[in-house]
Amino acid sequence: MLRETVRALADEKIAPRAAAADENEEFPWEVYKDLVAADLHAVHVPEAYGGAGADALATVIVIEEVARACASSSLIPAVNKLGTVPLLLSASEELKQRYLTPVARGEAMFSYALSEPEAGSDAASMKTRAVRDGDHYVLNGTKMWITNAGVSEYYTVMAVTDPSAGGRGISAFVVEKDDEGVSFGPKEKKLGIKGSPTRQVILENVRIPASRMIGEPGTGFKTALATLDHTRVTIAAQALGIAQGALDYALGYVKERKQFGKPIADFQGLQFMLADMAMKLEAARQLTYAAAAKSELAMNGTPVKDLTFFSSAAKCAASDAAMEITVDAVQLLGGYGYTRDFPVERMMRDAKITQIYEGTNQIQRVVMARQLLK
Ligand code: CAA
Ligand code: FAD
């Protein structure tokens, strides 16, 4: 039922706006309003904070169905989850009440700021500093590649509080867009997900109350990595949605397009491509749903020792599948597939980011191998 509801909304209101969001490189505010009206913009927020209280699998299904129509729009529920999971995992009740309720009501979005210009895969090598000054911390540094920067009101920012302690000297904070000293770089000019702004978050002497620290001093890097255990599953969902959109479009096209006097769907060479696409997609989907089940258990306090492996495996498998499937979808449409008159070239460009963000697929393999060998 949930899938049908989201698909109907996505077909009617999101898909028709996807090409414009891509072409104009504009955040899809109308889609945001529609998602808020349907309570789908941050479905994972627990009921205690006014949210829909969707579990991890339901959240995956929402993101999948939005991404099937528009990958940029799917970053609304996905990044709202990414930004807020650090609070759900580690913040005081006061911080949760204060910052999760506006997100649940659709009055604010939340972004996640871990990466820096010189600290991407090696996130622990970040330089952004937070220095204690009485009851406050003063933050200085530049966070790079922040999804939905500028449109989000709130940011989970990881910063170094003890430079002598490596990863154990990093703490997490909530920074508000309107805090004095916060500014944003220009929008990055990207290959895909052009409807989702990616910008630097620049922090210049940003003075915030110490109570905005998420958890204890020095626990920020662990919180950041524990968050990714839950949210790599949502990027897998985004990849599945993009791939499903491309496969569905290609399936319709091959039945209509005629060459050599018959629909191109009659050629076995193309049938085998379609079968492989569907097989890869379904394999990745089952892995993603298994990871979502583990994420849900862990969120509810059950220790799940293979969650880290499963979330990395799901993100890696689904994004690699999405890349292959979208490239094949363009091939199935021939020259038409290569033009912006058809959606599959956008899907192919959008798919690429899923192999890069929330940790590149090389890093997912590093994570999986460490889990296997430890
Ligand atoms: N949960 C909790 N704690 C964890 C953990 C996990 N999954 N994995 C590791 N830790 C702990 C370790 O036990 C260790 O603790 P101690 O200091 O007490 O020993 C600490 O965290 C540091 O762990 P590592 O030594 O393994 O850390 P590392 O520096 O070697 O880095 C890494 C590990 C896997 C490479 C990590 O840096 C990483 O994931 N890099 C990729 C960065 C990334 O994914 N960025 C995503 C940005 S968000 C984004 O892109 C947004 C978007 O999609 C929209
Ligand atoms: P690098 O770390 O420089 O990697 C370059 C290459 O080296 C890659 O192929 C990588 O896989 C490889 N490599 C690096 N280390 C190893 C290793 N140990 N073994 C094997 N190969 C390795 N970050 C946020 O914090 N918040 C966001 O909201 C966010 N959104 C993003 C949105 C977009 C559109 C983009 C492009 C990025 C976003 N990111 C965000 C950052 C993203 O997570 C990083 O780009 C990613 O983690 C890779 O870091 P990097 O770009 O510095 O590449």
Account of the 3D structure:
Helix content is 53%, strand content 15%. The chain is built from 11 helices and 10 strands. It has helices at 2-24, 29-37, 56-69, 71-90, 93-104, 220-256, 268-299, 307-332, 334-337, 344-353, 361-373, and strands at residues 110-113, 129-133, 136-147, 154-160, 170-176, 182-184, 198-209, 213-214, 258-259, 262-263. The chain has 3 domains: 1-105, Butyryl-Coa Dehydrogenase, subunit A, domain 1 (Orthogonal Bundle); 110-218, Butyryl-CoA Dehydrogenase, subunit A, domain 2; 220-373, Butyryl-CoA Dehydrogenase, subunit A, domain 3 (Up-down Bundle). The protein has a 4-stranded mixed β-sheet with strand order 1-4-5-8. A 4-stranded antiparallel β-sheet has the order 2-3-7-6, with no helix packed on it. With 374 residues, it is of the alpha+beta class. The model has no long low-confidence stretch (mean pLDDT 98).
